[in-house]
Amino acid sequence: MTWVPTGLRARLVITFLLVAITASAMVAGLGYQIVRRGLLERAERGAVADVRETLSRITLPIGASEVVWPSDATVTDEDLDGVVRALEAPERTVIVTYGGHRRANTGALFTMTDVPDQLRWQAARRLVHQIVLFRDQAWLIVATQIQRANRDGVLRPTGLTAYVFVPLSEEEAVLTRLRTALAQAGGITLVLALTLALLSARRVLLPVRRLGAAARALGAGELYVRLPVRGRDELAELTATFNETAAALEDTVSELRTLESTSRRFVADVSHELRTPLTAMTAVTDMLSEDAEDLPDDAGEAVRIVVREIDRLRVLVEHLIEISRFDAGAATLRRETVDVGDTLADCLEVRGWADRVKLTVPVGLTFSLDARRFDVMVANLVGNALNHGAPPVVVSARVAVGGEAHGWLEVTVRDHGSGIPEQALPHVFDRFYKAGTDRARSAGSGLGLAIAKANAELHGGSITAERCEPGTLFLLRIPKP
């Protein structure tokens, strides 16, 4: 898997290093090649000049008066040895050939098999030289056929060819030291580039980090955060823009908070003010409902409608008051150890649901919770199942064993109706949300599930909803204190 740097700091440092490495490699490589070429050319010129000068001093044939070595002259090994000795020098290998005769100096490291064929062919016409690599060491081969002037002054080949192997060890040592020096210089350059990259990255990224920290603080609600503007570059302009945006956001949020607070206070005040007339209206409608059967059909139906709508309005007002407590942060938790089975049974019995709901709870199951708020949660979940689901409605409770929720109280409420639509599941706990047009005029306030969720979160727990086949399953989870 290829690692790709994602941070701006890493990208800046890597860019600096790549530029430094590339520049150092180009300068070092170019300098090394220039020095190497000049050093080898000087060595070649020196060796070739030495061979030429040596050959010019050799008398051919040895002991003869003619200056031309006849092709039919008698050449002995001693004659060839004389040529070898003349060309011989420390660490050199000298090979001299004449027809079938071949002589080399004592301790020769090479033979004619080590001479490239092309070099032999060219040596028959002129003096040639070539650098070759033998045994991991560079050698310069100088090869030429010895020529001498005849009585008429014309150069004629003698048939004698000399091959001189000149070591380039000294030049290689110089190049080795040069490579070491260049490598050290490259390392120093790399360290300097890295230091410069880190300093530059710090200088560039420090304002960016400050902006990031300020943005996170702004997102966390610290709307008063501001940054000092230093300089006149692009980062300074960005910092100034951030400060202006933060100031505008602070003003907007403050205004929205004021409006929200006013709205919550208005809802709470209206809800409390409605309780008194609702109480009176409820008492009157209770009296009217008792006599509804004795009234004419139209009047009796009108009374029943009024009773039903007043009861719906009473539930809505109670829910609004409860929601306003949560919004104001006034909701408190009063935990006590209760028998879960008895609490669930009382919740169903008080509301007349005992014969419509199947309850499954282990005997003697106790748990620490707020009994009143627990009653509200269960009542809202069961009421939702009875109003919008289909029987049988099953309520069960247990203490979870194992896993992250070990020791938590889990209460499930399941109906066997058509189930909540898949697209509505993420919104069932939203305020005033009703899934489907058939629920638009239902008896519910649209706040029951939202209140149940708020109570569960006040306990530190949660409520989830999921589709089953058939029906819907609500899961209430309360952690142990």
Question: What descriptive keywords fit this protein?
Answer:
single chain; rod-shaped; 481 residues; 9 helices; 12 strands; five-stranded antiparallel sheet; alpha+beta
Could you characterize what this model shows?
The chain is built from nine helices and twelve strands. Residues 62-72 have low confidence and may be disordered. A hairpin with a 2-residue loop joins β1 and β2 (101-104). The chain is 52% helix and 17% strand. It has 481 residues and is of the alpha+beta class. The relative contact order is 0.06. α6 (297-328) packs parallel to α9 (448-458). It has helices at 8-57, 77-87, 117-123, 169-219, 234-290, 297-328, 340-350, 371-388, 448-458, and strands at residues 93-98, 101-104, 128-134, 137-149, 155-167, 336-339, 357-360, 366-369, 393-399, 409-414, 462-467, 472-478.
Please outline the helices and strands:
Elements: H1 8-57, H2 77-87, E1 93-98, E2 101-104, H3 117-123, E3 128-134, E4 137-149, E5 155-167, H4 169-219, H5 234-290, H6 297-328, E6 336-339, H7 340-350, E7 357-360, E8 366-369, H8 371-388, E9 393-399, E10 409-414, H9 448-458, E11 462-467, E12 472-478
Parallel strand pairs: 7-9
Antiparallel strand pairs: 1-2, 1-5, 3-4, 4-5, 6-8, 9-10, 10-12, 11-12
